[in-house]
Every structure is written in structure tokens, then in C-alpha cells.
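Figure 2 data, in text form.
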Amino acid sequence: MFEDETVDVACPKCNHKNSILVRDFEESAQTHFVCQHCHTGVKIEAEEFKQRLDQVLKEVRNLEREAARDAKRPAKRPRKGDFQI
């Protein structure tokens, strides 16, 4: 769902924001990249990111289920007192 999205990761040396694909975090426990500004090699432990991504995906699925459930319910008919002029 989010694999084509990017995450901005700050370089620990120069604090430049580097965009990393979510797909890179999902594929392995560690992600390596070279800072585009200072060319320092950076290693990222992806385990915490994966845990948080799993939480977000779970919440999205719950929202989708609730939306589908609400869509099946008939809409409440407005009453006379519901409107203000």
C-alpha cells in the first residue's frame, strides 16, 4: 500500500534530508544509503519503522472496515429541527 511512498531521513553528519522509498525498509532489516549532500554512508535499522508501518496498516484496515460497515447502514433521515436558517 505504501511501498511507493518516501520517507525523509536526516543524515547524521550534515542533517540533509534524504528521501528513501518505504519499499527499501520493507525488504530488509537494514537499509543503507549515501547522503546526497555530503556523500556519507548511512545505515538505518528498519525494525522500528516496520513495527510502526504495521500499526498504520492495521489502523487503515480498521478504518476501511468501519467505512464499509457505515456505507451499508441506511442514512438517517433529517428531522425538522436539524436545520438552521
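Caption note: The chain has a mean pLDDT of 84.
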